[in-house]
Design brief:
homodimer, Aspartate Aminotransferase, domain 2, Arc Repressor Mutant, subunit A, elongated, alpha/beta, Aspartate Aminotransferase, domain 1, seven-stranded mixed sheet, three-stranded antiparallel sheet, 13 helices
């Protein structure tokens, strides 16, 4: 615009952007000036006639811009006192995004923190292909609010997959899609509390985050004993539910003992309690077939929970629960009437499973993780033969037993050498009924292939 | 065992009972899986070689078990298509997916229910392009659990977009990504309740689902008066927060009156209360610039809430809130420590916005909806000249005033003719402080283009 703003009574230079139309540019410039405080509250603006003359534009354009800003609350117009900048304080904008921190000496270069698969191996090309096929065939109605349980396509694909690969007895109608395991546990916490449950037993070893989610729902989470046979489900009494990792105890890495599988099912049948089966990495077993899902033994008493966080990537935020039919309505009510999981990812995962890409991905991942596990156990046997490696049959982590009292110093030493490690004590229930044990929970799935050898070497260097 | 789970075929979970011989046990297990439907008809079984390797038994044993079951009719073996579960009736699973209902006489063919954009116009090709670009450039770490606020990429893209298009004062650090508006309202309900707030004022007209979400968080939701100037924010007193649709009242279709914009901000400043600004369709204004966001006036007291449900599709389940910085930690705590929104969709939307595809889509949608609105108002003026059309300046719906006492009969008549309509009474607060009014809330964004003309004609036929 050729002419600066004159005749304001204040010395102010405005530059209405010319591209988006006179009125829009004028409105934007005035709003900006008011917002930043360049036009002080109470400032009287020129009459529309005089400003229009100054700017060489139609009076109506100015009047409309003023009206817009009055409507938005930036200006006030009073008969007899003209148009003024509204009288209100303008606070400073909120806290800016913190800048990424500089690398500190000893900040981790490598990580063996458990809980993540190798994210660099996410099958991007295959996933995009599945997304394209899914979007090409989905009817437009699929993009609406949809079924609160999740899309029919994904529930159908999962029912087939879980029956085939995990021995789960599921039909599509009793599956609820969730934004990962945490979301499912939140829903179940709400549902159990609404049913009058007060107590959910948990394992002596497990994720603190999971206990916290249950406690946030108003539930207490006492610990079950853990002995040389693993979690002792025989100790269950009047609790309303129990949270277990039957196929692969996290973090100890063993399957639930057969007697104790039977015991927990009998307990649930006898007392009407519910078993929450966290099947977080059931796909990964190396030496023989995976342990079948507990749910297959008692579909009426077990909620089977699964996720793509270990088989694909946590960032997908896709999980599922297979809910006993009588509880389905309550679970859906606790989830909310509107599905909280994106339809496009759900349709893509359904296509990914039914096309066979999921099986192919899991099988190839299983081979790669098995090789890592073999390299890890061989390296430890070679370099630190005193250390006992356990929980090797399945999953993406192993337990390395340490001499008593050394856990935190090993972790500290690793941190100084740029390797992030996690100790068993991080996963110990505050009232654990178990022998204290010093150990590392080594998530060998975490590094990308390119960093694996160096990460393993870094681990061997810090082992006592 | 020579080979672990080989990387071909499908995963199959079997538990052969060991006591009665390998072949017998395997045969029984497979038969049982087929009989109970756990292996669906048509499921392709692994080759005998691969299953033998998986189970660590002789290939011949598997081949013989397969042959037995083919002989019994449970399996079929075809040259070139492998061994599959035979195609036969399987006992119905416990709670089958309800079959799509037959069309009843009068079941809707056309819909003008508000709340949805034209889903057939979802930009599938552009979206997939953005997904491909986003996945091609994302570092693998982006696929992990991530920031509980949502991805930095999307928060940065939104901060720029909201400032430019809606006059919102936002920085990426104070934006929280949500699974749509409902999820955001749930989070805010939890947060407000945790702050000790008991009461959130709502409008006399609005969505019952929203009030229900607040009530589920333990809040009461009294109604603000609604008069000829719209919602009266001057009536706010000691409530801890208010939920408003300032840019475009839903369902009445008017912007919040300038005096009342000022009043609500002054009230929030004076009492320390919070304004929840539901900016559900702020992108769509036809006659002049959109009314700017209320948040721009008081970023310290207003939570600005937006969504892609009207601009793209509800099935994306992507929304956002701009939170005053002092409340950010509480909002994140109420959302949960793990992000509940899929990373891939977030990265795709960020790319969609920064590439300009979002603006292009919104502009072209605006033109199409404007044409529909013009056609609708012209048709009503021509065919039912007694009916007053209001709320036409913006959004995806208009209000058609009806003669007193006729609302439900018009909706009923429409239903019989296959047209789904919604009345204003569906959106009236149970304690509304407002003149009762008979009207239709006509969501002209809902039908696909192909059905628009017929839908409009169907509407005209049922108008009194």
């Amino acid at each position: 615009m050729a002419r600066p703003w004159a005749a304001f009574g204040v010395d102010l230079h405005l530059e209405p952007a010319g591209t988006s139309g006179l009125r829009r540019g004028l409105t934007d410039a005035l709003r900006d000036a008011a917002r930043t405080g360049r036009l002080a509250p109470g400032t009287r603006l020129p009459s529309s006639r005089s400003l229009a003359a100054d700017l060489g534009i139609a009076r109506n354009t100015v009047a409309e811009a003023y009206a817009d800003l009055v409507a938005e609350g930036w200006l006030t117009a009073r008969q007899g006192s003209g148009t003024r900048v509204a009288d209100r304080a303008v606070p400073a904008p909120s806290a800016p995004e913190p800048a990424p921190r500089r690398r500190e000496p000893g900040a981790p270069v490598h990580s063996l923190i458990p809980g993540s698969p190798d994210l660099a191996a996410f099958p991007r090309t295959e996933w995009l292909k599945a997304a394209r096929r899914a979007l090409a065939t989905a009817p437009f109605q699929a993009l609406g609010y949809g079924d609160p349980r999740g899309t029919r396509e994904l529930r159908t694909a999962l029912a087939g997959y879980l029956a085939r690969a995990r021995g789960v007895r599921a039909d599509p109608g009793s599956i609820v899609i969730t934004a990962g395991f945490s979301h499912a546990l939140r829903i179940l916490g709400t549902m159990l509390r609404a049913r009058g449950v007060r107590t959910v037993a948990v394992e002596s070893y497990g994720l603190d985050d999971h206990r916290a989610l249950l406690r946030a729902a108003g539930l207490t989470t006492p610990a079950l004993p853990y002995d040389r046979l693993g979690t002792d489900t025989g100790a269950l009494t009047g609790q309303g539910a129990v949270l277990l990792t039957p196929a692969h105890q996290f973090p100890m890495g063993v399957p639930l003992h057969p007697d104790r599988r039977t015991a927990v099912v009998d307990w649930a049948r006898r007392t009407g309690a519910l078993v929450l089966e966290d099947d977080y990495d059931g796909e990964f077993r190396y030496d023989r077939q995976p342990v079948g899902a507990l749910q297959g033994l008692a579909p009426d008493r077990v909620v089977h929970l699964g996720t793509t966080s270990k088989s694909l990537a946590p960032g997908l935020r896709l999980g599922w629960m297979v809910v006993p039919s009588p509880l389905l309505d309550e679970a859906v009510a606790a989830k909310g009437r509107i599905d909280t999981c994106g339809v496009l990812d759900q349709l893509t995962l359904a296509e990914f499973i039914t096309s066979g890409a999921y099986d192919r991905h899991v099988r190839s991942a299983r081979l790669r993780y098995r090789r890592r596990r073999d390299a890890l156990t061989a390296a430890v046997a070679d370099r630190a033969p005193e250390i006992r490696v356990s929980g090797i049959a399945a999953g993406l982590h192993v337990l390395l037993g340490l001499p008593p009292g050394t856990e935190s110093s090993v972790i500290q030493a690793a941190a100084w050498q740029g390797l992030a490690l996690q100790g068993l004590s991080a996963h110990r229930h505050e009232q654990a009924v178990a022998e204290p044990l010093d150990a590392l929970v080594v998530g060998y799935g975490t590094p990308p292939d390119s960093a694996w050898a160096a990460t393993l070497e870094a681990l061997c260097r810090v082992l006592p």
